[in-house]
Amino acid sequence: MEFSCPRCTTAVDEEFYGPCGACRDQLRATYQAERRLVAVPEYEPKMNVTPNAVALKDD
Ligand SMILES: [Zn+2]
Questions:
Q1: Residues, Cβ < 5 Å to ion ligand 1
Q2: How far is residue 20's CA from residue 14's CA, in Å, rounded to a whole number?
Q3: What burial letters (b/e) apply to 38-58, b meaning 16+ CB within 10 Å?
Q4: pLDDT tens digit string along 5-34?
Q5: How far is the CA of 26 from the centre of ligand 1 (A)?
Q6: What separation in Å is there between the alpha carbon of 10 and the centre of ligand 1?
Q7: How close is the Cα of 29 to the center of ligand 1, in Å?
Protein backbone atom coordinates (compact mmCIF):
# COMPACT_ATOMS: atom_id res chain seq x y z
CA MET A 1 0.00 0.00 0.00
CA GLU A 2 1.12 3.54 -0.71
CA PHE A 3 0.93 6.16 2.00
CA SER A 4 2.86 9.02 3.55
CA CYS A 5 5.18 8.07 6.39
CA PRO A 6 3.52 9.30 9.62
CA ARG A 7 6.91 10.41 10.92
CA CYS A 8 8.69 12.13 8.02
CA THR A 9 5.70 12.37 5.60
CA THR A 10 7.73 10.83 2.79
CA ALA A 11 5.62 8.94 0.25
CA VAL A 12 6.38 5.27 0.68
CA ASP A 13 5.09 1.93 -0.60
CA GLU A 14 5.16 -0.57 2.23
CA GLU A 15 3.25 -3.73 3.07
CA PHE A 16 1.95 -2.29 6.34
CA TYR A 17 1.14 1.24 7.44
CA GLY A 18 3.78 2.72 9.74
CA PRO A 19 7.11 4.53 9.78
CA CYS A 20 9.17 4.11 6.61
CA GLY A 21 12.34 2.07 6.55
CA ALA A 22 14.59 5.05 7.31
CA CYS A 23 12.40 6.07 10.24
CA ARG A 24 12.32 2.50 11.56
CA ASP A 25 16.12 2.49 11.53
CA GLN A 26 16.19 5.80 13.41
CA LEU A 27 13.61 4.61 15.93
CA ARG A 28 15.55 1.40 16.48
CA ALA A 29 18.79 3.35 17.00
CA THR A 30 17.07 5.70 19.45
CA TYR A 31 15.55 2.78 21.33
CA GLN A 32 18.92 1.06 21.63
CA ALA A 33 20.61 4.30 22.74
CA GLU A 34 18.00 4.74 25.49
CA ARG A 35 18.45 1.14 26.57
CA ARG A 36 22.20 1.75 26.84
CA LEU A 37 21.65 4.81 29.01
CA VAL A 38 19.24 2.97 31.30
CA ALA A 39 21.55 -0.05 31.52
CA VAL A 40 24.31 2.06 33.10
CA PRO A 41 23.29 2.94 36.67
CA GLU A 42 24.28 6.27 38.11
CA TYR A 43 27.38 5.70 40.16
CA GLU A 44 27.35 7.37 43.56
CA PRO A 45 30.59 6.94 45.45
CA LYS A 46 29.94 6.32 49.14
CA MET A 47 33.51 6.88 50.31
CA ASN A 48 32.44 9.86 52.45
CA VAL A 49 30.00 7.80 54.52
CA THR A 50 32.62 5.70 56.29
CA PRO A 51 34.83 8.55 57.61
CA ASN A 52 31.75 10.29 59.06
CA ALA A 53 30.62 7.13 60.81
CA VAL A 54 34.09 6.65 62.28
CA ALA A 55 34.23 10.31 63.38
CA LEU A 56 30.90 9.97 65.24
CA LYS A 57 32.25 6.97 67.15
CA ASP A 58 35.28 9.02 68.24
CA ASP A 59 33.12 11.64 70.04
ZN1 LIG B 1 9.72 8.12 7.52
A1: 5, 7-8, 20, 23
A2: 8
A3: eeeeeeeeeeeeeeeeeeeee
A4: 999 999 999 999 999 999 999 999 999 998
A5: 9
A6: 6
A7: 14
